[in-house]
Amino acid sequence: MDRVFVEYYEEELSHIRGLAAEFADMHPAVARNLSLDTVPCPDPYVERLLDGVAFLAARTRLKVDAERSRFSRSILDVLYPDLVTPVPATAMVVLKPGQQVQTMLAGHVVKRGTRLVSSLQAGLSTRCTFTTAQDMTLFPIAISSVGYFQDRSALAAAGIGPIAGKAGEAALRITLARTGKGKLDELALDRLDFYFANRTKAPLIFDAIFGVCSGVGARPEGKTNPLSPLPPPEMVGIADAEALMPRTRPTFEGYRLLREYFMMPERFHYGRVTGLLPVVRKCQAGLEIIFLFRRPVPELADLTPADFDLFATPIINLFERECNIVELDQRKTRQVLHADRTRARDFEIYRVIRVEDADAEGPDAEIPELFSLGQNRGSGWVYSTERRPRRPTEDERRQGVTRTSYAGDDVFLAVSRPVNSQANRPLKRVDIMALCTNRDLAILDDTPTLTLEAGDPVETVRLLGALRSPQPAIPAALPTGADGESRADDLAWRLVSQLALNFLSLAKEGRGVDPLHALLDLYAERGDPQPGQGRPRRRSAARAARSLCRARRPRARPQCALDRAHRLARGDRKAGDRRADVLRPRHGSDAACRPVGAGGTEHSAAVGPAVAAVCPPCRH
User: Fold this and answer.
1) How do strand 326-327 and strand 108-110 relate by DSSP bridges?
2) What is the pTM of this model?
3) Which helix (H) or strand (E) holds 324?
4) Residues 7-66: pLDDT tens digits?
5) Domain boundaries, given as residue ranges, for the chain
6) Phi, psi at residue 8, to the nearest 5°?
7) Phi/psi zone of residue 597: left (φ > 0), alpha (ψ -120 to 50 degrees), beta?
8) How far apart are CA 155 and CA 292, in angstroms?
């Protein structure tokens, strides 16, 4: 903002001096008395007066221009609040089952939202708190071997035949064994998630399993045992119960998928296999899970057990916390909220969950949000929040440096009484429950030692790579360093414009996939914490969409291969041969999609979650 303000100041000062020169030409005698006949003004007092006027004019102009962004931000806060919140630090972790799991034949479920805490850093008094993003069942099993079979002769030698009448040209075999004492058939194992741990090979494995896989089967270890067909593999992270970012209210799930994909693509590097229990009951030593491929995938020839992980889950630096009670000052319109007033820099409020009158009890204590449906209930008061960039502390201003590059925001609370409200008592104190992050603590140590806060039977928590740094919320003010017409922050307006997708096509005739390209670009620009990674991933997704979708006027019922990814993500077993589904996307009008062969299908699988996000199933 400082650079923008300086530009405004210089423009206003130049404008004032230009007006002074015009005034001097029209009224030279008066201008000479005011020392305005020459530039710069020889009278230092008059020059300082002009500087002051330019300063005030620049400040006013800055505030007026900022209202555009603040207004659009307010619209999004009401309609899609999840899009404008900051992005907390995230990572992938693997939980190693403890010895207690050996006796848990039904497994142990680590619930979504389980907390993990980091080790305490030197010079700090706050630990980072993370929560898991999905349920995970621990079993005393491990991957004992991984094998790839590249042709039919290798398949025949391994005793791998057709699955449910579908033959394959190649196959991937993953063998599971029980750890510790006991047999595998004692376990109630019916569903298992494989995480593709090798980030270099993960897209290749994803492509193979969700792009060219013709069938999945399982059998007890041994090539002479018959294969039992299993349901098609399922994607992980698509369902709301597995969302990385919490949803404020039910909205179009595609926006969440787009944001999470560009924010943390490895979060979707999973393959889920279901229907294992009947086969497990026949196993003594080991269990083989086999993926048949329609064509060879030579890139998978050197896969090892280290390229897969069991019991992996994404974690996010986001947790619920009871904030400090706010003493309302009637002389202020808004008051800052603190998760912990003594450690204000260590916490950032992500979203306010609940506001209550601290001096009341029961339903009358609840204070609804301004635009909520229940604003006429309870105490008769309503509240609203505003997010503003955090100002440097006195020590930071004196030293000229901040702890990290991420400053974060402060959230301000305003409590008011609507017209004709039934509030019959003054409001003095409010109690706040909020979702919080640890602001920039994750940047100070991006490879922390993590432990579970609860008593789950977990021996160790292994971090898969460094933490992804937090990203700021969409600013409600002018961006630093902007110039020309781009001074006004248009990111929020571009997010507002995507609301038109409710009735406009993403593939308008004559425009190809340009609308879809713009939508992906919108999320790629601010989604990936790693510099330079968002745009390549956006280009990859756009190429996939372009290969799948060709705008033309349909001769019959429009077909959309993009919807295939969505149906597969939902586990629809009637997806056919995965070449081209025949459902029309909600955003399609006269646009249609051509059937996709093997090559197009495989290419789309690498960006399946992102492309499927913008093509929900047809409701016709």
Assistant:
1) unpaired
2) 0.79
3) none
4) 899 999 888 888 888 888 888 887 777 776 666 777 788 888 888 999 999 999 988 887
5) 2-79, 141-312, 320-437, 490-613
6) -60, -45
7) beta
8) 10
